[in-house]
Every structure is written in structure tokens, then in C-alpha cells.
Write the C-alpha cells for this entry.
Amino acid sequence: MTGNMTFRCSATALDVRRMLSELRARLAAENLRDDDCSNIEIALAEALNNIVEHAYRPGPHGIITLTLSVGQRHLTCELRDQGVAMPRLAPPAGPAPDVTCQRATLPEGGFGWSLIRALTARLHYLRDEEENRLILDFDLGAP
């Protein structure tokens, strides 16, 4: 199981869902373990939704390109968009929000980047001229 795959979609919630569905089917066809497919799908869903909600908001919907490089025990995902750069040119740092509070005061957001970090082996962000590039590396289990 080796090779590259490229996906493109409009930066809309519906198109992201379609792309994730196609991605999941392609990863399963590559005989990746179900746990690996789930982790990749969840991390990419978080990253893609951040692009839709933050990089292209407010403004016209742009294009998101996702390139996957699949190896025997490793998968690299590169997301590219021409939206707004991340603040301080870096993904937000820090732990997930505190959930040891009353149910009525539980936070509704702030979990995405801690989840992405937990599911990936490595992540890297850079702003290359007018383009955002987010690279997520996954270590794959045995088939």
C-alpha cells in the first residue's frame, strides 16, 4: 500500500463532508486498519472544518486541496488553501478546555486542535506566499 491521492473541494461544509466520505472509502480500499481510517478521518474533519469556518470566513468560498502520501506504516496529509493565515502563523497551542465544570457551563468549542494533536504523530503549518499549508503525519498500525 503506497502512493499518492489528491482530493479537491469547495470550502463548504457539504463539500467537505463529501470529500471525507470519498477519502474514507479510498483509505479502506488501501486496506488501512479501521482504527487508522477513523483517526485520519476525525483529524482531517477537524482541520477541514477549521478551514471552512476560519480561513475562508467571512468571504467567498475558496478551494481546499488535500494530498495524501501513503506508505507502508505512515501517511502524510497536506491541506492547502488560499484563505486567511492562522493567527501568529501557527496552529493554536494548549490543552483541551477544562470539562470539570457544571454541565450548563461546559465549553462548546476549543477541542479541535488538541484532538488533532492527539491523533497525529506530527503536524506542521506554514504560510507560503498567499497559501496555507497544513501537514499532518500519521503513523499507521499493522494491517
Residues 94 and 114 are 7 Å apart (CA to CA). The first helix runs from residue 13 to 29. The radius of gyration is 15 Å. The longest strand covers residues 131-139.
